[in-house]
Structure formats: structure tokens, C-alpha cells
Amino acid sequence: MNPIMQTMLNHRSIRSYQERPIDPDLLEQILGCGQAASSSSFIQAYSVLRVSDPDNRKTIASAAGGQRWVIEAAEFLVLCADLQRVQYACEKNGAGPLLGHTEHFISATVDTALLAQNILLAAESAGLGGVFIGGIRNDPQRVSECLELPDQVYPVCGLCLGWPAQQVQQKPRMPLPAILHQDRYRQQDLPHQVDDYDEQIARYYQQRGSNVKLSNWTEQTAQAIQGKTREHMLAFLQARGFLRR
Ligand SMILES: Cc1cc2nc3c(=O)[nH]c(=O)nc-3n(C[C@H](O)[C@H](O)[C@H](O)COP(=O)(O)O)c2cc1C
């Protein structure tokens, strides 16, 4: 196991931070690592909004359902899918405007996700901790207004970063055979694999140091996915120029 793999396997989301800033040079290096991620057709369809204004932090924390770590983190970034520069490239080369193709939405969103994960991983490798904030999509309109995001840009998720002030037990992932298929998809194994994992996660929830609960993976997942349909997203994205065809 090399040190990069160890850093990856050591991941846990951190939501409590020391009152200690992140050196600007370190932040720049971390963001550079984010940009080093692969990019679909090299379009680099993302922007990072570094939110330092305390009022904006409060607005976004509230839009995200009152997540105080958005206010408390040393750094808070909003990672946006951004087709503005791609649109400029098309105009500059007489290729016509972007028309909101689903494929372009997927490319920009995947690029942003890869950037995001690289940023968090680089931060963790430097001893920082962080957590993504999908909660910003509870009210993407308010977040976009607050950050003055133009058309062709949407906030995919936030990212809190800071020096950790908590010890967090790791959440066990699914056993590899549950997600790895050899040559063809094996659906018949799904129920017993997930049921076994339910038992593992139930033990984890009962034994962990904080937020002990009587639950399992399927119960949490069903609740989380049905509770976060964010019905406003399609109209919001279409209004911003995405997902029109
Ligand atoms: C796209 C994305 C959005 C997330 N949004 C939130 C969020 O709004 N608030 C939060 O506390 N955690 C958020 N998380 C963190 C997940 O809850 C966390 O990754 C998951 O429970 C697994 O725990 P771990 O990261 O500690 O292994 C998000 C994670 C991802 C990947």
C-alpha cells in the first residue's frame, strides 16, 4: 500500500475545525491538484467560488439547511459546473451557441466532480479535513444569486476545508464483490449482498463513538434518497441553460 492509497483509504468527512487558517500557498497547491484531474475532451468545464464573505457563508449555510460547518470552516468553496468558457470557445470559432444538450451537462458535471474529489484528496493528504455540501442544491437559486453566477454555470456542491478538530470513525464501504461485476452484471446476488451489508452498517451505527443509532444502510438510503428529490432542480438547470435537449 503506497502513501497515496493510504490517504485515500483514510478518508472520512470532517465537520469540525480548528480556528486556524489554511496557508494561501497550500490552498493554491490543493486547487492546482484539483485542476490536474482528467477533463472530458479537455473542456475544463468548472469554476471554483472561494467564499470568504461571512454574510455569504451565512446565506449559503442557511440555504443548505443550517449546516454550521459552512460558516466555521477555514475555507468554503462552491464547485460549479461552468460552460461559460466552452461557450466562448464556440463563439470565437464560429461554432454556434450551446443549446443545453444533456451530454454537455453530464460532461461539465463529471468534470466538476473529478475536480472536487481531487481537491478534497489533496487537502486530506496535507492533513486537512473536509466535507462536501450537496445541501446547497436545496436552494440553488439563492446560492447562485449570492455568488452572482451567470447562465451556463450551476453550483454542483460546496466543500468545507479546515484543520480537523474531531476524530471520526470511518464508515465501512460495501464489500468489493457487491460493486464489482466480472464481464456481466450479476443482479441475482444483489439482495443477499445488500442484506449482509445492512447488518454490517447496523453494527457500525450501534458501536460508533457519536450519533449512535438503530438503523442500517437500506433504511438510511431509502430515507435519504426519497427525502432529497429536489424537484426544483430540473427547472432551475433549464433556466440556467442546461438540460434543454
Ligand atoms: C456530493 C456530496 C454531497 C454531500 N453533501 C453533504 C452535505 O450537504 N452535508 C454533509 O454533512 N455531508 C455531505 N456529504 C458527505 C456524505 O454524507 C459522506 O461522504 C458520506 O456519509 C460518507 O461518509 P464519509 O465521507 O465520512 O466516508 C456529501 C457527500 C457528497 C459526495
Describe this structure in words.
With 245 residues, this protein is an alpha+beta fold. It has 2 domains: 3-168, 3-Layer(aba) Sandwich (NADH Oxidase), CATH 3.40.109; 169-245, no CATH class. The protein is 46% helix and 11% strand. Strands 1-2-4-3 form a 4-stranded antiparallel beta sheet, sandwiched between helices. α2 packs across α6 and α3 (54-63) packs antiparallel against α7 (140-146).
Instruction: Return the string of H and E elements.
Output: HHEHHEHHEHEHHHH
Integer-rounded radius of gyration: 20 Å
Q: Give me the CATH superfamily of the largest domain.
A: NADH Oxidase
Give the total of domains.
2
Output the strand order for the largest sheet. Answer: 1-2-4-3
Report helical residue fraction: 40-55%
Brief account:
This protein has 245 residues and is of the alpha+beta class.
Task: Set down the secondary structure blueprint.
Blueprint: H1 3-9, H2 24-35, E1 46-50, H3 54-63, H4 69-72, E2 75-82, H5 84-92, H6 102-125, E3 129-133, H7 140-146, E4 153-162, H8 176-179, H9 190-207, H10 217-227, H11 233-239
Antiparallel strand pairs: 1-2, 2-4, 3-4
Flavin mononucleotide (FMN) binds at residues 11-13, 15, 64, 67, 131-135, 157, 171.
Which features characterize this protein?
single chain; 245 residues; alpha+beta; NADH Oxidase; 2 domains; 4-stranded antiparallel beta sheet; 11 helices; 46% helix; globular; binds flavin mononucleotide
